[in-house]
Amino acid sequence: MSHVVDFIRRVIDSAEDECEDLVEHLTGVDSARDRVASMQELEDAFPGAADVYRTLQHIEAPVSYRDPSGEISGWRYRNIELDWEPRAVSWAWPPRTFVPYDEVLRESSTSATNGARGVRVLGSCWGMSSLSHPRPGGNLLFRGEDASVEARAEWTDDGHVRALLGATFEEVLDVLGERGMTLRNQPGYASLSVAGCVGTGGHGSGVRASAPLGTLVTAVTIASPEPSVHEVTRFALGDSEFPRAVTHLGRLGPVVAMELAAVPAFHIAEHREIRRLGAGVAHAEQLLGDVLGVQLEASVHSAEIWIAPYADRHGDTVASVGIRRTTAEAPSEGARRPAVLRCKLLQTLSQMAAVLVDRVHPRWIRAALRQGVLATEAKKPVVMSSRDALDFGVLNRSRVGSIEMALPMDRAPAALSALLAALEIAAQRGHYVYSPIGVRFTGAGLGGTLSPQADRDVTVHVEIPTFAAPAFCADLVLPPLQALLASYGGRPHWGQRVYLSPGELRGLWPASSIAATARLVQRRDPGGHFASPLLDAVLGI
Q1: Which secondary-structure segment (H or E) carries 199?
Q2: Whole-model pTM over 0.85
Q3: Which structural domains are found in the chain, ordered by start?
């Protein structure tokens, strides 16, 4: 409890810098002239950032459609169910029974234990989206016995691990742990489904550490989307269509299994240091260059950056740099990650605090985010199993709206600098994001696909989360930011919110990759049983 009280105290102390604004707010003193001057300075420095806010501040979804739950949606694909319990349905390999997708949905709604809830082609977790939901009538390969807790991941004869249907990384890691094995990389939340996370561009972290996650895959088995065709196709590493089967985007049929390469279990020593980021491209270039450079060291598994998005009174932005090194040391005894990374109470309080701040004076969010990032500092390395180290810690159970854009390394510094300026512009207009910005690095992705990392040697992933409740205006603040990052070559993570139009998306990948994906989709699903309104518009089918 003491660390919660201490964190709140530091937020209040830091917020003293914002008290002048609060007095103005309560007394009606007008400082609009200063704010306008500040905004004009930002807009002069970053005309692109200002322009997207002028043109897109009131953006509307270009198309609406009814998703499988019956809800009307636009291009909004975020679907978070981190507390989903996926093990209540048993699966078999090879599968024996075909059951229509809508029958599974009926079972989900009538099951006393809600055992099949969320069972879709790819599962349902962070990294999953409505993009991956087939229209009613699509087929699943489903084992017909009563629900059980039988594992859906298994060891294969060739030394790989097979994840069946909606199996999560957590299940896969359990199977591997029994053999003293693990994965070289994993997503930040082990509760994500393997097929869903990998198939929508999930990436993990690390330039040389089997990130993006598609590089772990050795084979994908996908069933025919046609209801009358009861057969499966196995795409193995080396097959011409293998890369596109890995990045399937839920469009090729039910993903029955993914096989992943395993490695002997290893430990990671993690420490986090605080950096201050000045305004301008040069400072962003220095920070990103330093963090990329350290990942080229042989002992470094991965590194990431968390940025408090608003500058302090000195014009500096606070960033936390986390560095993970492989080590032969045993896990630390007594030493733990900073409380902000593992304390459920702090995470519960975070949204309550955000609601209060939003009602009283939104500018206080600056102080809260700065203190949140500062609280992650850990100068002394903490040694953990790789499974624990690569997990973000406490699951974020708050309802979140988020975009993530994958940038080419050479354009990332300018994009990050423009992003921070755009956030300041938005703040001048009363729109904030309520969470730190995450920056991660990955190596080369699978070529010829619609993966966010495709055909790039190094990709910088910039994630901008905020609370999804209407009071926090996620649908006002996020679309312009996504458009801004797209102008620097950023590609969206398909499992998160996508506000870009089909035409804008089409320009972010080579025409040859789009054409190859379209040919595979048309060959496998001529009846459109797994049609996706956004993806099909991008593919031109």
Answers
A1: helix 194-199
A2: no
A3: 80-264 (3.30.465.10)
